[in-house]
Design a protein that fits this description.
The chain has six helices and 13 strands. With 305 residues, the chain is of the alpha/beta class. The strands form three sheets. The chain has a six-stranded mixed beta sheet with strand order 10-9-8-11-13-12, sandwiched between helices. A five-stranded mixed β-barrel has the order 1-2-3-5-4. It has a two-stranded antiparallel ribbon with strand order 6-7.
Length: 305
Amino acid sequence: MADPTVTGRILRGVGGLYWVDGPDGVLLEASARGIFRKTGETPTAGDRVDCVPSGDPDRPWHIVKMHPRRNSLVRPSVANLDGLVITLSADHPPPDYLLVDKLLVLCYALDIEPLLILTKTDLGAAHDDLLKPYRPTGCRLLETHPRDEASLDQLRGWLSGKAACLAGQSGVGKSTLVNRLFGGEVMAVGSVSEKIGRGRHTTREVVFFPFAGGYLADTPGFSTLELYEVGIRAEQVTLGFPEIGRLSEPCRFQDCRHLGEPGCALPGGPIHPDRLERYRLLRSQLEDVNPYAKKGRGRTMAEPV
């Protein structure tokens, strides 16, 4: 007898019901077996899972196994991200660079590839300097506006094969960007939306849509990100500031935290002065939250698992 197990990725989960993208684009409606309550595991959007037929016409499939996660987030609840598109605007609202820096820390701590994209470049009078603080980071940067098809093609190429989310301030043009990206895939997106009972691009919860050989979601929850709430430790802040590791000369002290210690090599180095100020703010905040941060005790929820 053939094995009835089907493996797929959860696109959305709500109220104990999950929609799983199965083989050949078949969408499976599934419930989770009680075994997960005993183990404390909760399936979430982005999880790779095994399903078997349930015999229940209302929920025809059971999720019986969750595959190991490469990473996971609690708020928003999402697993197995390959990429994060961090958006900021050249016009309005003014860029929230502190949020951008927090998101970069999160990406590098969780092995998520970041793409920093500047929207509305047709409206901002002078936007050349808006991405300047991030040029030394080595992070991929992209500028776009609604009539710039070349940048949209570059974004599609970067997203190809990735499970990715969009993140950034409200009003920076994320929904416009998503609409442009899905413009050529309206039928596929509309079909999934109809089956899972949601509008095409919702930000109330994570909903993945198949896109360019991968998956894409416009994701809620990042705008109020606090690093300590997702388990980031103080010493992990440097991960989001890769230019710190490119110093031509080392700091005087091997355990320098770059918070103004004598002989710190960061001032005047490759890091932008504003980025250095925000690094010191984030690191100080986390050390205030956890007085044992310098000793690196404990395991963070934000580490890849």
